[in-house]
Specification:
By secondary structure, the chain is α/β, with parallel strands linked by helices. The protein is 40% helix and 20% strand.
Length: 340
Amino acid sequence: MNIKCCIVGLPNVGKSALFNVLTNQQINSQNYPFCTIKSNLGSVNVPDDRLNKLSNIFNIKNIIKSNIEIIDVAGLVKNASQGMGLGNKFLSDIRNTNLIIHVLRCFDNTEISHIYNTVDPLRDKEIVELELQLKDLETIDKRMLKINKYCDTKNLLNEKIFLDKCKNLLLKGVNLNYMQDISNSNLHILNNISFLTYKKSIFVGNISNNNYIYIDKLKNKYSLDNDSIISIDINSYKNDCDNINLLIKKCFNMLNMINFFTIDNKEIHSWCIKKGSTILDAAGIIHSDIKKNFICSEVYSYYDICEYKSLNALKLNYKKNIKGKDYLIKDGDIINIKHR
């Protein structure tokens, strides 16, 4: 299952440097605005200590980890929604992702330029979020034109009422991901239109020399907790690996993803899937033919594997579970699907 996260922020705040750290690439990240002029694509493995444990138990060294696709979007500026800077193309790139990683510069250094000449992550945050809100307002206006032209059904009338509510929130400067108690029909509208401000997001404060002054200002102003913002010294990432791994795990968890495993004689494979998915869904992620010809699956608990140390020992202790297509996958399940 593909998970896509995009890195956004003003020009020259550390987006491409973070992209390089996450994806182990070496794209240009020089000290000038709009160093990135097209979106960069890469991927990062999801850290999971359970894989090493399984590798030791089964004596299998080949491990394939779940991964997240990362998109490095060119810097956004004021009026990006109107085409300023590198404009609308990159706002469209954001629309095709699941989660936004918003990088904010949180350090002073006169040798590193800032597009607005001063370091102010509170201002920078509001600039980028306003551009996303303006783009969503534009999207609503375009959709309203179509609805007003063909508003002859109850569904379209309900959609118009809901979009009016969304528009009023955006005009107040409120992102749509703050909405609560959304009905299933309205949730379908949000997902179908793919609003930018409805996407889950996490902030990365790019710090230096363990200075958290700007981070504290952000937390106080916007009531951000440690789940909403992560401090990373991107330029010294080798000394900050824990927070890099924390960022990856938080992105994974915010999207309500879990891992399940398959094991054969050659490899241990980690697969990601949405919480609440069935084992038939899992079969489809492995291969469409396996889903089509699904019969049943053996399912083992990771914790039982760790306790009994082998599948044979598990079977002898009646820990093997045969599950049908409606079984809900649990995080850490080890599955062996039987199919025609």
